[in-house]
Write a sequence for this structure.
């Protein structure tokens, strides 16, 4: 049932020309993950070159490193995660997406979160954090990572945590105590223990009838 809803959203995304990124993309990059089993939505910034070519998010070196960290924490990329980006089309030269592009693409992200109804949202990197965090807009991943805070999507509140982007970890190899890699392990262990514990998660009924992406 979730997959059917998500397929509708995906087909709209694949035809989308609502911002200028549609003119330079090779493929829109909608998401990776199983909507029926995913318990966590992980949101990155935007597709890079490999993602643009393949149509899948987090498949380059950064994506491989993310998979390693998840596996190490006991989080299954295939079963537990639904991975997407703040914007679905690659910005030229991998520049940071503009506020206008983020706003234009928000409806897809909101619909994805609504369909998944996750136990938690992971904001991977500064662009995803900026899009959702309602507190101090000057805060950084280093300052706020590891802390749960609430985000509101389409009238529903979800627990969210900011985590380092794997591209940043590729540039920081240290595994010393307090290093970004060690902190990433610590944060994912917290996610695993507090949000993926074997609890009776609420069974819910999907109702997207009022969502702006659904056909009238
Ligand atoms: Fe549409 Fe989002 Fe792609 Fe812009 S980035 S064209 S809003 S799918």
């Amino acid at each position: 049932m979730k997959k059917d809803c998500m397929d509708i959203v995906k087909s709209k995304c694949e035809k989308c020309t609502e911002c200028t990124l549609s003119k330079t993309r090779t493929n829109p990059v909608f998401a990776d993950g199983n909507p029926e089993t995913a318990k966590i939505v992980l949101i990155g910034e935007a597709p890079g070159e490999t993602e643009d070519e393949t149509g899948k998010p987090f498949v380059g070196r950064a994506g491989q490193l993310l998979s390693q960290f998840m596996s190490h924490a006991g989080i299954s990329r295939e079963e537990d995660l639904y991975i997407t980006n703040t914007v679905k089309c690659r910005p030229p030269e991998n520049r940071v997406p503009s506020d206008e592009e983020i706003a234009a693409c928000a409806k897809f992200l909101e619909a994805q979160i609504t369909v998944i109804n996750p136990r938690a949202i992971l904001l991977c990197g500064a662009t995803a954090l900026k899009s959702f965090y309602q507190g101090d807009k000057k805060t950084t991943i280093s300052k706020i990572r590891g802390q749960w805070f609430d985000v509101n999507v389409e009238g529903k509140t979800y627990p969210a945590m900011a985590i380092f982007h794997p591209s940043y970890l590729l540039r920081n190899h240290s595994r010393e105590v307090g290093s970004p890699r060690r902190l990433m392990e610590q944060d994912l262990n917290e996610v695993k223990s507090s949000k993926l514990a074997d609890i009776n998660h609420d069974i819910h009924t999907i109702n997207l009838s009022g969502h702006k992406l659904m056909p009238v």
